[in-house]
Amino acid sequence: MVDNDRNYQDVEKEGFDKFKNMELPRNIVVGKDALNKVGKTCDKLELRKNALIVCDQVTKKVAAERVADILAEKDYHVKTEEISEADQKTIDHILSRITDETGFLLGVGGGKPIDVAKYSSHLASIPFLSVPTASSHDGIASGRASIRRNGQKISVKAQTPLAMIADTSIIANAPDRLLASGCGDIIANATAVMDWKLARRLRNEEFSHYAANLSEMTSNLLIKNVGNIRPGLEESAWQVVKALVSSSVAMSIAGSSRPASGSEHKFSHALDQVAEEPALHGEQCGVGTIIMMYLHGGDWEIIKKSLQAVNAPTTARGLEVSEEEVIEALVRAPTIRPERYTILGDSKMNRDAAEECTKETGVI
């Protein structure tokens, strides 16, 4: 007993200075007709009675109007702002609509409304609720937002949703392409974690085993069950949304997007810059994962087969971009977030190497 006490004292003398603030969604409501729970959820969270909904033209009809009606029945005063872009100009407009009376924001829709609402709420220091209408990416429950600034799309720290309400009856009816995109974003965790482990070994980067394991498990489970993912099925929407939430939680535990964003995301962001008409984020990340798994010396073929099983693109043609744009994006990818070390290394990739790996994997 004395020895144990001495060990504790030694530890105390050495000091312990680790500290982490993990922001996680307090309430996650997922399932059939979940939208009907939005009023009860807000009451349970004891939110102030003035709300601002951010949506786009499509999601306004799909869900935002219904959300406004449900909240009105609960005596909430609701204003709705329809947006078309997720850029700094839009953020500034939403901030101008937030008053001292505004209690919370709701992002109702896909990527743009949710990103705008979560980043605006972060800047205004008020709560944010995520109401996704599609399962296209893991941003639906994360504390990061993708905002276009000065002509480029950047990732910024944003507000983690206080609650997420995902109605599978709505999500299942979203365009098939969005479900496939969400699968691509989850599968991308496989190489993101490999990059993170590499950075830990070579650069002694801070690493969270819990976050990495959760992210890896999420990707592996989806790959194992891709045969059960079918467009239009609520069960499929249920599985993909849960995986996207798990991915978001992994990022919250890590305190960064590291568990779900590596070289494959660098490739996607580079493609956003060089492509005349970029594809969806998750679609591009899926193709990037094929390439990066090849560079890691891993089983890139299972990644490709998994994406094909959910009808996600696996080639430049599938992304509807040119082969030249894919090559240029791969060459440029290492310059995206250079502080984040990945299998791509520190400098630009050699063009010959870019051509070789994309041809070997059948991407071009």
Number of helices: 16
Q: Describe the sheet with the most strands.
A: 6 strands, parallel
The named CATH superfamily of the largest domain: Dehydroquinate synthase-like - alpha domain
Instruction: Categorize the overall geometry.
Output: globular
Could you characterize the architecture of this molecule?
Mean pLDDT is 93; it is low at 1-6. This protein is α/β, with parallel strands linked by helices. It folds into 2 domains: 27-171, Rossmann fold; 176-360, Dehydroquinate synthase-like - alpha domain (Dehydroquinate synthase-like, alpha domain, Up-down Bundle). It is built from 16 helices and 8 strands. The strands form 2 sheets. The chain has a 6-stranded parallel sheet. A two-stranded antiparallel sheet has the order 6-7. It is globular and about 60 Å long. Strand 2 (50-56), helix 3 (57-73) and strand 3 (77-83) form a beta-alpha-beta unit. Helix content is 52%, strand content 13%.
